[in-house]
Amino acid sequence: MNPCKSIRHLSRYASRFCLGLSVSLLAITVSAQTTTQSETSPNPTPQVQTPPAPAQKTIKVQMKTSMGNITLELYPESAPKTVDNFLHYVKKGQYNKTIFHRVIDNFMIQGGGMDAKMNEKPTDKPIPSEAALALKWGLKNDLGTIAMARMSDPNSARAQFYINVNVNEFLDHQELPPGDPVQINKNGETVTLPRIQALNATAGYTPFGRVIEGWDVVEKIKVVPTDVMSIHKNVPIKPITILTMKVIK
């Protein structure tokens, strides 16, 4: 059963980050939570392990959290609508007092949509996926990048985001070969799908920036103890609050 569909049937507060995980990938993410920090912690300077930033004018955003400050560098040419959308929420204070509500070590930390009681904040209309454009600029779901969370529809991203704490290339957009049906890489396995299904499965998740300061804070967040809260899994036992976000020079 697709875990995203089952969650949506249970509650309108379902997390907006559904990957259609295979059993094998789900097992990887579950086992990652039980490993020690020394076994799973990546290099604390992710910029060394990721490709050079796209050559363009950038925008910096400071995220103050209850565990420390994180500075983000955004790339408006790589994902213009996505960056505009994120900045819209930053400037209206949408992210203030929200939490990192989904934390999976060796995968990603997700936030920007829930309060401490796991109530989802209202948002504006969704935005179109720009994962293909970001990929053309060389921006991927690499260690240290920030990307938009969404539902199974590629064009359903709203306010929630995640920070990659591993190289998650299976979240990147994939260019389809000609033909129908087509073979694609789905969660590390080669599968054959009708073209219309393959287009959705390979749409990817849109990265739009990266962490440039405060990676030590991300390192602390990714290993906090988590538990199940109602229908939500991987919820930090002690809330990790985004106090404020603001654009900085």
Strand line-up in the sheet with most strands: 1-2-9-5-6-4-3-12
Strand content range = 25-35%
User: Kindly state the mean pLDDT as a whole number?
Assistant: 83
Secondary-structure-derived class: alpha+beta
* Main beta-sheet strand count, sense and barrel state: 8 strands, antiparallel, barrel
CATH domain class name: Mainly Beta
Relevant CATH superfamily: Cyclophilin-like
How would you portray this structure in words?
The protein is of the alpha+beta class and 249 residues long. The chain has a single domain (3-248), classed as Cyclophilin (Beta Barrel). The chain is 23% helix and 28% strand. Strands 1-2-9-5-6-4-3-12 form an eight-stranded antiparallel beta barrel. A two-stranded antiparallel ribbon has the order 7-8. A two-stranded antiparallel ribbon has the order 10-11. The longest helix has 13 residues, at 80-92. It is globular and about 50 Å long. The model is unreliable at 1-49 (pLDDT under 50).
Task: Outline the fold blueprint.
Layout: H1 3-10, H2 23-34, H3 37-40, E1 59-65, E2 68-74, H4 80-92, E3 98-104, E4 108-114, H5 131-136, E5 145-148, E6 161-164, E7 182-186, E8 189-193, H6 195-201, E9 207-213, H7 215-222, E10 226-229, E11 232-236, E12 241-248
Antiparallel strand pairs: 1-2, 1-12, 2-9, 3-4, 3-12, 4-6, 5-6, 5-9, 7-8, 10-11
